[in-house]
Amino acid sequence: MQTYISILRGINVSGHKMMKMEALNALFAELGFKNIKTYIQSGNVVFQFKETPTDVLEKKIAKKIIEAFFFEVPVIVKKFIEVETILINNPFLNSRKEDPKLLHLTFLAAKPEEAELDKIKRGNYGADEFIVTDKSIYLFCPEGYGNTKLSNNFFERKLKLTATTRNWKTLNELVKIAKEMA
What we know:
Strand order of the largest sheet: 2-3-1-4
Number of domains: 2
Number of strands: 8
Radius of gyration: 16 Å
Structural class: alpha+beta
CATH class of the largest domain: Alpha Beta
């Protein structure tokens, strides 16, 4: 059994796309997933399933959400080891020892095009900084994520990809839950 972390974008925000975690857990069980654990109300699910390409799992989950809840939700699935590696390799922690409370990670649905990346690298984002690695973006937001220009919408619009962001505490908790399963 492989351990996966699924991250849903835009549920339970400002009264939109409401989804109880018990219902989400049941939905994952209907798909045949095992050892399902949700974390907070924003669509973070750790589960186990046979070795399957993550894009296949993303489509399977997204389709089932449409059937059950009648709305679309972007879904990103990562293997536990991928998320753990992302956590370990955070350049803002490893090189600069920044406060983890000011760190976030944006997951991208695919690797961004270099031309699109070059455009955003030239921008001025005040004290906020980002570092792109493959399908992830490390964020340092010293004035808080709520005040940054480097939001999901910004990255989706500029990179033409689905994105979803989690704070550093949430990522650590997801990895902790996944480790307990392994």
